[in-house]
Amino acid sequence: MKYILVTGGVISGIGKGVIASSIGTILKSCGLRVTSIKIDPYLNIDAGTFSPYEHGEVFVLDDGAEVDLDLGNYERFLDVTLHRDNNITTGKIYKHVIERERRGDYLGKTVQVVPHITDAIQDWIERVAKISVDDDDAEPHVCVIELGGTVGDIEGMPFFEAFRQFQFRVGQDNFCCLLVSLVPQPLSTGEHKTKPTQHSVRQLRGLGLSADMIICRSQSKMDDDVKLKVSNFCHVDLENVINIQDCPSIYRVPLLLQQAGLVSFFARRLKLQISSPKSRTFLYKWRDLANRYDRAVEEVSIAIVGKYTKLEDAYISLIKAVRHAALALNRKLNLVWVEAESLEPVSQKKDPASYHGAWKALCSANGILVPGGFGSRGIEGKVLAVNYARTSKTPFLGICLGFQAAVIEFARNVLNWEDAHSTEFNPDASKKVVIEMPEHNPGQMGGTMRLGKRRTVFTEETGVLRKLYGNKDEIDERHRHRYEVNPIFVDAFSKNGMKFVGRDVEGKRMEILELPGHPYFAAVQYHPEFLTRPLKPSPPFLGLLLASCNKLQLFIERGCRISPSHEFGSIAQSDSDDEEVIAYTHSGATEDDM
Fold first, then answer.
1. Is 216 a catalytic residue?
2. Known catalytic residue: 341?
3. pLDDT by residue (tens digit) across 207-234?
4. Options 141, 324, 518, 527, the catalytic residue
5. Pair 468, 441: CB distance under 8 Å
6. Is 38 left (phi over 0), alpha (psi -120 to 50) or beta?
7. Among residues 327, 45, 188, which one has the least CA distance to residue 58?
8. For 519-569, what is each residue's pLDDT tens digit?
């Protein structure tokens, strides 16, 4: 087993997750089986109770684990299925050690950070690295480990000490360390400053680790003399100083790393019997994605009516899902952020301008997306957005709370149940159309929701989403919710036009709703954004984008061919005999581009 540690210097949030994902992608393209581990030094057991503004999106895995959003990057880039133990937190490690101490496993010894905590970290990594993340259940060859935060953070000290020991435990040829560091470029001078990186390297070496490669993140391209300075002062070979400047899209990062000689570096450093990616299709795939992103001209605008719009990381998987669908259509995506609370009546708002601005943004979009969320703030704004989408025939997709908002809106304005609501927001409503799930444990918040991959069975053969999913009888998607549609009102909804076309395997829980006769009005209780892939856009999002481009009906008539005829295609528009068709093309990337 080969271990690659990716840590960061200067500041957090400089792209360690994308760098780690890209490294794994490159090594996987060389024929190696790759797994990933994300270490978060906070004391929480998992990310489930975080505010989206605190740590961004909570990503959910198949096994129901609520984890850091970087695991979403790993799954999307590597096309693998990770597990709850692929995310390590300080809370998990300490809980594990304390439970062992309570059982008497340490035979009365004084339990300390060294060796007990550091040993637990090393044991955890060695155990998880051997667990398959591919469909073939084969043991991985390489484990890419991202250590969150920055070098020198006090909460990360036990992990750095663990890795100091770990490099000797597994052997020099099986462990290497990469430092991702910011190289700022102050506007006052315009030159790249390497001193912060030098300090980070000095701190790392003081902790007993040496960087085998330094990946310098910068706003613009660094000159060779800056790289030489980093090499000289940080004790790293010049060829192992790599600059990754800000890119138009993250799809260029694997290309930049590959072009910088990452494969030959790992072959030398870890004694791997590999060469450049075995198939030229690796470069072809990522170059095509990057070119398609950069060259798209025709625009499609999607309004996201959310509660956490000040931080895009709160909706990172959602953004990826919409973008993957737009890439498949060769469309330039314009995301319009609408604060749900701003859509509520102006009499309740301090700023009338935000009210009018929010409604202008909503009404000008080609499609409307209402995502999930928790708490009562903004719920009425979401219901109003659903009402506009339904009555104006604007393509609409609701997810989780957006699904519940669609039910509430329909009950109020079609069934004329004026006080219809969810028990989450109004426990005293006479028409409780959304209720708490019976098995939910209100005594604890963490890990008590309906989480992870669950099966949905289609109950209607003519539903739009069933066609977009390839006419499957059932699908598996990931969930994260503790409220559901009240089953006693389902018949009333169905008789008045709202069709619940997907239910759980027992037929009791509503999973998918549609409004026949609407260009595209669909909502799902699950979170389809968690399973989106760059070359395999999630069907609900693909449907939203198709409808927003007025292509959905034609796509359905053509057989809903979601997969292209060749590996790296996209759904594009062309003209043939004055008839608009949907054809699969690539965006101009050829063998000469390699």
1. no
2. no
3. 999 999 999 999 999 999 999 999 999 9
4. 527
5. no
6. beta
7. 45
8. 999 999 999 999 999 888 999 999 999 999 999 998 988 887 654 433 334
